[in-house]
Amino acid sequence: MNNFILSDSNVVDIIRKNIFSDDVLDFTKKNIKPIEEMYSRYTCAMMEIETKFKVLNEQLSLEYDNNPIESIKTRLKSMESLVRKVRDRGVDFNIAAIEENINDIAGVRVICSFQEDVYKLEESLLRQDDIKLIKRKDYIENPKPNGYRSLHLIVEVPIFLKNETRRMKVEVQIRTIAMDLWASLEHKLMYKKERTPEQHDRIVSELCECAQIGAMLDQRMQNLQHLVE
Questions:
Q1: CA distance linking residue 83 with residue 81, whole number of Å
Q2: At what angle do helices 22-64 and 115-126 cross, to 10 degrees?
Q3: How much of the chain exceeds pLDDT 70, in percent?
Q4: What is the pTM of this model?
Q5: Percent of the chain surpassing pLDDT 90
Q6: pLDDT tens-digit readout, 182-212
Q7: Coil, strand or helix at 48
Q8: What phi and psi values does residue 64 have, to the nearest 5 degrees?
Q9: Residue 114, Cβ neighbours under 10 Å: how many?
Q10: Which of 33, 106, 150, 154 lies at a 20 to 30 A Cα distance from 27?
């Protein structure tokens, strides 16, 4: 049996006739616009939450004479990541189903100075009339087995569009500098690395110990803050 190998010209010709066909292009154009509009709405919701935290930071800095927020990071889930999550969860691939079942398309991460600031910001955000809490997971009080610590909130916020008002979900993560440092380095150390089972177990053990050290650091820094005040 002869092996059939596509040459570069063969591949280009197949792509031109099939992937670049008028039917495929029409289908893509028809379906990409609703997705772009959905991403635009999540961008607006993310901006709303970011602005709320900036306002809170300004107000709390006047009240307590220090800025509780060190930095604010925002991100939109990539199309590839979104499609994988929709596939893995068995969600229908339509806009309504995605918005109903996927809560973390838009994300806002708030980095605080001290652990008490985490809960202070949470309370201030949820006190606002237009914010609705959908889900709360406190990984500070109950860390993940690997040592991960952070406060996670899924909230709904209204966005005011040209002809309508929509309520959109945003994932909010609030954590201290130490928690964010650990999470960032843990991701770099663990993400798609080839290692033996023994190496893996040692790294996991060391990371858990580092997380405990970070928690102790947060507590000592909080104690020092109380002393200064």
A1: 6
A2: 110
A3: 85
A4: 0.83
A5: 64
A6: 999 998 888 767 778 888 889 889 999 999 9
A7: helix
A8: -110, 5
A9: 20
A10: 106
State phi, psi for 6 to the nearest 5 degrees.
Answer: -75, 130
Q: What are phi and psi for residue 44, nearest 5 degrees?
A: -65, -45
Sign of CA dihedral 76, 78, 83, 88: negative
- Strand ranges across the sheet with 165-176: 69-76, 106-112, 165-176, 151-160, 132-138
Q: Are 56 and 121 within 8 A, CB to CB?
A: yes
Distances (CA, A) of 219 to 152, 178, 226: 20, 11, 11
Q: Does 154 have pLDDT greater than 70?
A: yes
Q: Nearest 5°: phi and psi at 205?
A: -65, -45
24: which 2 tokens?
Answer: 């495929």
Please say if the pLDDT value at position 10 is more than 70: no
CB under 8 Å to 158, separation ≥6 — which residues?
Answer: 48, 130, 165, 166, 167, 168
Give CA–CA dist 110/69, Å, rounded: 7
